[in-house]
Amino acid sequence: MTHLIIFLFFGALCLAGAVNLLVQRHPINSALSLVVVMGSLAVEYLLLGAEFVAAVQVIVYAGAVMVLFVFVIMLLNAGEEVRTKGSRVAMLFGIPGMLVGSALVGWVLIERTGSQTVAAGALPGAPRTIGWLLFHNFLLPFEVTSILVLIAIMGAVVLASHPDTDSGKKKS
Amino acid sequence: MQERGRDDLTSVGGPVLSAVEGTRALLRNNALNITTFIIVSLIKTVLALFVLLTAVAYTVWLERKVVGHMQNRWGPTRVGPFGLLQPLADGVKFLFKEDLTPPHVYKPLYIAAPMIAVIFALTSIAVIPVGNSITLGSLHIPLQITDVNIGLLIILGVTSLGVYGVALAGWSSNSKYSLLGGLRASAQMISYEISLGLSLVGVLMLTGSFSLRDIVDTQGGTFWGFIPRWNIFYGGQFIAFFIYLISAYAETNRIPFDLPEAETELVAGYHTEYSAMKFAMFFMAEYANMITVAAVASLLFLGGWHGPVVGPPILRALLPVFWFVLRIFGFLFVYIWVRGTLPRFRYDQLMAFGWKFLLPLAIANLLVTALVVALRA
Amino acid sequence: MPQNYVPIFIFIAFIGILIPVTLLAAKLVRPDNPSKSKLMPYECGIDPVDSSRGRYTVRYYIVAILFVVFDVETIFLFPWAVQFKALGVFGLIEMLIFLLILVVGYIWIWKKGALEWV
Fold this sequence. Notes:
The complex is a heterotrimer of chains A (172), B (377) and C (118).
Chain A: H1 2-23, H2 27-48, H3 51-76, H4 88-113, H5 127-137, H6 139-160
Helix pairs in contact in A: 1-2, 2-3
Chain B: H1 2-26, H2 30-70, H3 86-96, H4 107-123, E1 133-136, E2 139-142, H5 151-172, H6 176-207, H7 212-217, E3 222-223, E4 227-228, H8 238-251, H9 263-266, H10 276-301, H11 313-341, H12 347-376
Antiparallel strand pairs in B: 1-2, 3-4
Helix pairs in contact in B: 1-2, 2-10, 2-11, 3-10, 4-5, 4-10, 5-6, 6-8, 6-12, 8-10, 8-12, 10-11
Chain C: H1 6-29, H2 59-82, H3 84-112
Helix pairs in contact in C: 2-3
């Protein structure tokens, strides 16, 4: 019962955050809504028993990736977006497309799993289990990840560094 | 001061908990168990918050007193004996001060930022154990709000979320000093978060668990006859301990890493435009973070609450709490000592120290620890 | 198992109510008489020059993005560390390869000067 209440509450919070992300016009409000979405997703993972994934969701997504977003908004001084009427094409095709898409996803989910439910905390997600799976069963993907991270490091530095044009800017 | 708080914990908690126990015996069904659980958690929450906030207030007093004596001054003396009632006076003053909300700020975030900072600073205490457990009737209560599998990760998580309070305060204030202070603070916090995380890996290797209670339990006993089996000695986590401590000083924006609040250049940094209760919230957040850091350092590296335990059962239950509080007090004293001693870093020195010295050192330390653990096994 | 986490939510809910209530209580008792000069942005007594919203150095961006990358690396180390005793020497070699690749990246950004602040 407690679990159902928590599930529904954070599910609603997650959806509200996602809608707010789209509705808000100031980028920093949108970014913070995304933080709320990440946080409530973490709670939902926790309910499933995926403890480690929940912690990673908070530390990496809410605590690192979103901090980067907020940083960029602060640095660039991004202002409020101008509201436009929106294109007619988007109205004509976007809304029906979205409806069809979500109906399709919902149908597939119901078709595949029926009305089965998972008991709270039923999935194996303790850090030690994850450690064993990651470093035993999924060893190759893990090592490939390191190359991905390496590429990310290099890409970030190459994109961001322009030593010649940097001198004119404000320093602190 | 924290000792006084602990006494309150048992004296107030006792009768209430036995009342709960009585009701539980009266109506034995499943629904009530949940109610009991929630009531016990609520009581623990209130007590822990009361103790933590008292400790925060008296840390401020301690800091003023100790720094005062280090600088040949007296510190607070007027309010109560030895100025002991000074925190109370400060609290009342914060409450009654005029709170200015300048028109140039972005109001929703300007109000939310101090709350975000203080809420995430206080949350860590929910997973920190303070001692073994006490038995009241048939109810066995661990001295901790809750013991979870990923306790350490939760502390890291809320620490990383604490950046938002600072960053948003700086941004929403819409003032040059605030924005620069906020940027500096958040860049510094995220830089040192990496070496902080890496310094914990060695401890995790030795203990094999994220649960803070498990981590303390593995550190009981002695080796070679007399040396306590703490991680700092037995695990050889000496270097990791210092990496943790230095990174934590930077995380909490304390001297010698208090650049975000460098008053000579930035007035007060990210909270320049704040006043009264909102300013007090940033203050509380900083000191609550210091206490968390002290608690985590004691739990991970210095054996938590382990220490000589003698006497009747009630003393056996409470002595570990005393040893733990003593360690926290020691760390807080070092915080203040460092503040009274060291000058401030320059910003490029700060960044270079974090990225070019602490980070490789932390990686080297974890590799050496891995080798030692593998050889020992 | 998730039952253990419920007290954390109770705790957060409790302070989530307590803190705003404190702010509201302060609003009821404190004086409120703002004036023009009180409400100016603080610039040590002189009138503010220039807008506070400018563009700031790209260094902060590099720091943030490097933080994200290294944070992911640290997260990978955690489950490995708690399972290290069971994984044994094999686990050590795995992690050595992982770290070696990352250290190459680290040396590269150092040489590239991305870690220099000025």
